Each structure stands twice: as C-alpha cells, then as structure tokens.
Hints:
This protein is an alpha+beta fold. It has three helices and seven strands. Strands 1-7-6-5-4-3-2 form a seven-stranded antiparallel sheet. The model has no long low-confidence stretch (mean pLDDT about 95).
Amino acid sequence: MKITVETVVKAAPGKVWDAWNTPDDIKQWNTAHESWHTTRSEVDLREGGTFVSRMEAKDGSEGFDFGGTYTRVVPGQAIEYRMSDGREVTVEFAEAPGGVLVRETFDAENEFPAEAQRQGWQAILDNFGRYVEARG
C-alpha cells in the first residue's frame, strides 16, 4: 500500500530544495510533534548515497534513526530512496501557483495504521513548509 502526502511551500524552488537536503535545515523541521526533535542529520545526496536522521523524544525517553539509500536524484525535481527496512519513497518538487508543490509517496509499513502513518508524514511535511516560509 502506498500513501501520499503533499503541501505547497510558498518559496523559491531553490530554497525549498536546499532546505529539504541540508542537514542543518533538516534538524530544524524534521519532526511530527513538538515533543520530538532531530538531533543529527547526514546527507550524501547522490544515487547510491545514504542519509540518516536521528529522531528523539525531547525528554530522552526514546529515539530512532531514520535512514536509507538514494536510488534516484533529479536536482530540483525528484528524489527517490529505499529506507533501511526496504520500503520505497518518492519525493517530487514541482512548481505550483504561489510556490512549490512537495509530494511524498511512500510504502506503508505494517506496525502502525495507515492513517496514523499518513498523519505523521503530513505533520513533518507541514513543519517543513512552515520552516521554509518563515526563512523568507
């Protein structure tokens, strides 16, 4: 089962692309809830390159690494990757009225209900949009 989330970010395409792929920026927006944060991010943005983000509860009670390997990179337009558990993700960046449409499509996992997964990924994407727009 595939799940898709999307948002329109009111910013220039280059700013959107850079904020998506720059570790210092990722640490600022990569969270589904204010009680969590991303403490580490590494990006090797090329086909065959890897990425990892360390996501942790702010109270220190739990955390996990979210990572994978890039399988396709089209600068400014698309990123595809395989997560460490084998699931596939496609991220598309397209010009839209007033900004950039960012669309993520990912393979659902079996541990959590599909709607909970969609809500979590959408929350992170919404944080991304707010972060980029606030930077101007």
